[in-house]
Backbone:
């Protein structure tokens, strides 16, 4: 029998439409870590949601975008705010909400999603933990 080392993540995973919703602003609380899974390594981070600290997997698309805007050293991401986009996608034969993350200034546009010239960092709402 092949076994795999388990990693304690120190919290509960954020659940779409329960802990995080379309347009929510989250704060990245740690530098993240690589966690093995049946689909390969996943990048998981602790984030502050409206329901408190949760664990969230950052998919490849989100990681690549965040590297572009925040740099390739995730220690520098701590304290940064990100915006949640829930996009329906076929995952394992079922339509599921997939979480994508961008800079908070992104808005829905006629052509999809993109940065807004109107929003400045000081306009980004402050997250207050409900706990």
Residues:
């Amino acid at each position: 029998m092949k076994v795999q080392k388990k990693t304690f993540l120190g919290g509960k995973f954020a659940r779409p439409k329960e802990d995080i919703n379309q347009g929510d602003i989250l704060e990245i609380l740690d530098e993240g870590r690589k966690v093995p899974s049946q689909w390969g390594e996943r990048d998981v981070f602790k984030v502050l949601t409206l329901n408190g600290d949760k664990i969230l997997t950052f998919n490849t698309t989100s990681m690549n975008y965040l590297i572009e805007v925040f740099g390739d050293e995730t220690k520098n991401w701590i304290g940064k705010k990100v915006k949640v986009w829930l996009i329906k996608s076929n995952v394992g034969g079922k339509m599921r909400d997939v979480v994508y993350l961008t800079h908070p200034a992104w808005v829905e546009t006629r052509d999809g999603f993109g940065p807004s010239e109107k929003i400045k960092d000081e306009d980004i709402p402050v997250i207050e933990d409900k706990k």
